[in-house]
Amino acid sequence: MLIEYGSVFITLAIVFGLYMTWGIGANDVANAMGTSVGSGAISIKQAIIIAAIFEFAGAFIAGGNVTRTIRKDIIDPTPILGNPEILVWGMLSALLAAALWLTVASWMGWPVSTTHSIIGAIVGFAMVGIGMDAVNWPKIGTIVISWVVSPMVGGTLAFLIMRSIQRFILDTDTPFRNALRYAPLYLFFVGFLISLVTLFKGLKHLDIELSIPQSFLVAIAFGSFIALTGRFLIDRLKM
User: Fold this and answer.
1) Which of 93, 104, 174, 210 could make an SS bond with 214 (beta carbons 3.0 to 4.6 A apart)?
2) How many CA atoms are closer than 13 Å to the CA of 203, on its beta-carbon side?
């Protein structure tokens, strides 16, 4: 069956995948760009261009860890090795189900996680098509824990950053001047943290292995580049 209808399955996978990418653009990109567009910092056109470049770059450079987890760590297909078409139909069903959910969520204005949507769809397929034991429940448990830990850590860091902005910029006598002064420092930390996470988690599938000291040095260099670029752009502002 797989040999006879292989081209059909590949076509369906491409169509469902493109449909899901549309859902990702409608929902995940809005999550990332909504505050920037809403505050007037960038226009919708600029947000689309930025998202198109960096969403693709993020998936290509740092997406290996997530895709590997979804591909290998969520379910155990060993019980259906003799019927691989079940896995094919199941994964196609999961892809379409996640894409449909993203469409509904985007239509209703609900910010949801694409990654968690596809993981939930795969778990649903495995429970019905293979059996409850096929699901890697400990791994699902760690994902569920991340739903609590990640917002708590993110919220705490956001609170501390906002307090520092209030202390050094907003509550001073010259907030605009201090904003120009401290902005490169905040830009450095953004570039440093994002690049460090990427180096730690995202480059293994590209066969790029750096030691911890090397990763920190690269992250510092990238953060410094972002800070200097920000300083250059700030200096061009008309007071």
Assistant:
1) 210
2) 13
